[in-house]
Recover the amino acids of this structure.
């Protein structure tokens, strides 16, 4: 595995890979790698264990643009030595670890990418400017790497929808792959930020996924009122943990619009603070078919 912090060196290697007829796959991350990141590299590598057809680039860049002034930019965990070893073991061909100066050589970028509306809700309502930072750095990475395909985790569901919209709106020729959320054995979604949790908070945090599963099974048993599902989740998190709920919402999975009734595939998404650590999670739930029919009859 090669490592570089320079765009020019990265491009040289990518050009070589392309000349050899390889497909270029990008996995953007902020590092402090866990199996949620590595599973995406392994998934890409599985299709070409001999490194003959697919060239996997993983980027590690803690993008200042996507952090608010009171967020954890300075204390975000880093460990490049460990990350390099793990990325190599997962089959990554090239690790791109640019400095802030390499990515933003003119200081503040005058050009930014702004996806409207779907960035004003859920996490975007609480993290002003976050998705503009994400969309800007992801489009820079797409322009630097020109990947054929790029992996993003479903764990950051809104992020995936925002990038999908950006790719459609700007005709970016990249295939997006949404990778299912990788969880610890007790259900907690893997995240670099889990390392901030105290032992007691870590013990409580799996309530997030348990409550999402609760919501999903309510829908599976025919509950179609989003506010009832939402209330159950809020109640469970509040009674079983000291987590402070930022939001719990049930929205249409494909465009994040609000639903009056759960009669389509929805995402139940939440953000909860454990002390100063903000955790997010979500689950995708298909509506009950007979509920759908019932509503169609009622609506017509
Ligand atoms: P991050 O380093 O947190 O910015 O994440 C980099 C990429 O990995 C994003 O596309 C995330 O959605 C994805 N990711 C992070 N955690 C997980 C997880 N537990 N399961 C699957 N993908 C994840």
């Amino acid at each position: 595995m090669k490592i570089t912090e320079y765009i020019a060196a990265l491009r040289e290697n990518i050009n070589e890979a392309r000349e050899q007829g390889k497909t270029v796959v990008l996995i953007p991350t902020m590092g402090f790698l866990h199996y949620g990141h590595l599973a995406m590299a392994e998934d890409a590598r599985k299709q070409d264990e001999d490194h003959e057809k697919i060239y996997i680039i993983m980027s590690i860049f803690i993008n200042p643009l996507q952090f608010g002034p009171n967020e954890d930019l300075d204390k975000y965990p880093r460990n490049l030595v460990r990350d390099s070893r793990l990325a190599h073991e997962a089959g990554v061909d090239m690790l791109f670890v640019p400095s802030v100066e390499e990515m933003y050589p003119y200081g503040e970028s005058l050009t930014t990418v702004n996806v409207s509306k779907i960035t004003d809700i859920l996490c975007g309502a609480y993290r002003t400017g976050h998705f503009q930072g994400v969309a800007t750095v992801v489009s820079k990475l797409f322009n630097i790497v020109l990947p054929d395909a790029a992996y993003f985790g479903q764990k950051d569901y809104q992020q995936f929808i925002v990038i999908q919209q950006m790719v459609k709106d700007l005709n970016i020729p990249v295939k997006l792959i949404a990778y299912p959320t990788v969880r610890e054995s007790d259900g907690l979604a893997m995240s670099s930020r889990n390392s901030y949790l105290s032992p007691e908070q870590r013990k409580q945090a799996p309530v997030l996924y348990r409550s999402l599963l609760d919501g999903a099974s309510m829908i599976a048993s025919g509950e179609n009122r989003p506010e009832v599902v939402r209330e159950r989740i809020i109640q469970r998190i509040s009674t079983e943990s000291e987590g402070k709920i930022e939001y719990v919402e049930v929205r249409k999975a494909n465009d994040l619009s609000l639903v009056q009734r759960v009669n389509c595939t929805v995402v139940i998404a939440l953000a909860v603070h454990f002390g100063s650590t903000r955790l997010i999670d979500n689950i995708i739930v298909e509506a009950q078919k007979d509920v759908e029919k019932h509503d169609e009859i009622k609506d017509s």
The pocket of adenosine monophosphate is lined by residues 29-30, 36-37, 152-153, 155-156, 179, 181-182, 189-192 (CB under 6 Å). The chain has two domains: 2-179, 192-298.
